[in-house]
Design goal:
About 45% of the residues lie in helices and about 15% in strands. By secondary structure, the chain is an alpha/beta fold. It holds the Pfam family NMT1.
Length: about 350
């Protein structure tokens, strides 16, 4: 496992950077770092092209996130190698905003994160392009209260979330707004996910809104009722997680970007078709002692066969952008379609 401290000097400030308004100074800093890194990346690409060697690529990922299991599949089954890529994993244990900053500043070439976390900083100018929607299904809303049967029953209730900019909080706030409920009528209380269960048992909250693997494991351990997921209704065919690529990589080396996308899509499809074997491959990367059988069941509940690119991905991004306007995350003046065209270009060539 590589050490994130070596690759992200500014990681300690990441959550504040992405959970609040990104300053002009912060954007200039990200741009300047990316400008320093980009020439080195181009030099490496030229050397690889001239020698026929595999192109070095750095992928940021979180080994604790089951959503990222196809990265381990792609490594073990050689999907990256088949595309002429030599991939190095940069592991991050925090939220996916750290991954986004790693990509935006050129410390990584790509990584997988949640669209509802990343769209705001992309609107603010982070130079990352969304290349493929990788899957859906990892967001869950749970309760132990028999009187709470749907999102509509959350008015006036307290719900545990990891932070106020959480993509899971944003998703369920959007669903509440669509039902005519002001999200501010729900008390979103911040806790670490490993304390969600205790907060519920103490009665500090009446529901939990989080992502896998934590929410799946809490649901099974505490026999909680699942109120909703991000696959319900017309969300069934939408992604929640996306592969983001360094903007300069997409612009200057489109062939390399396309190869990376092909490898990830192939791994996603194989994961969907072989959840048991995928779970076996991924299990050693999970710090907690989670069995391959549990991971397999978790993978089956997701849509890892979903691999939206091009026009389909842009449609999903535009819809998410419009959704985020309803809860005042995205500026009302942002044109959702034009924004999607910029941040989700055609990468497969």
């Amino acid at each position: 496992m590589t050490q994130p401290d070596r690759t992200l000097a500014s990681a300690s400030s990441t959550r504040r950077l992405l959970a609040t308004q990104v300053s002009r100074r912060g954007l200039l800093r990200a741009a300047s770092i990316a400008g320093l890194v980009a020439p080195l990346g181009l030099l490496g690409a030229r050397v690889a092209a001239q020698t026929g060697a595999a192109r070095p690529i750095k992928i940021a990922w979180s080994p604790t996130a089951v959503c990222h299991s196809p990265v381990s599949v792609a490594l073990e089954r050689g999907y990256f190698t088949q595309q002429g890529l030599a991939v190095e994993n940069l592991s991050f244990g925090g939220s996916t905003d750290q991954l986004l900053e790693a990509i935006a500043t050129g410390h990584a070439d790509g990584g997988i994160g949640m669209a509802l976390r990343w769209l705001k900083p992309l609107e603010q100018g982070f130079d990352v392009k969304l290349a493929v929607g990788t899957h859906g299904g990892c967001m869950r809303l749970l309760t132990a209260d028999a009187n709470i049967k749907s999102i509509q029953d959350l008015r006036g209730k307290s719900v545990a979330v990891t932070d106020q900019a959480s993509p899971v909080k944003n998703f369920f706030a959007i669903q509440a707004a669509n039902l005519g409920i002001d999200p501010d009528e729900i008390n979103w209380r911040q806790y670490p996910q490993d304390l969600f269960g205790e907060a519920l048992r103490k009665g500090e909250v009446q529901a939990l809104a989080g992502d896998d693997p934590h929410l799946y494991l809490i649901r099974e351990r505490d026999k909680l009722t699942q109120i909703a997921t991000n696959l319900d209704g017309d969300n069934a065919d939408r992604t929640c997680c996306v592969l983001g690529l360094r903007g300069a990589l997409v612009r200057n080396e489109p062939d390399v970007a396309a190869k990376l996308v092909r490898a990830v899509v192939a791994a996603q499809k194989w994961t969907a078709e072989n959840p048991d074997e995928s779970a076996r491959i991924f299990a050693p990367h999970v710090p907690a002692k989670v069995s391959a059988d549990v991971l397999s069941a978790m993978l089956r509940s997701h849509t890892h066969g979903h691999a939206s690119t091009g026009a389909q991905l842009r449609s999903e991004v535009a819809r998410f952008t419009t959704d985020l306007k309803t809860i005042k995350v995205i500026k009302p003046t942002t044109d959702a379609v034009k924004f999607a065209n910029v941040v989700a270009p055609d990468v497969l060539i």
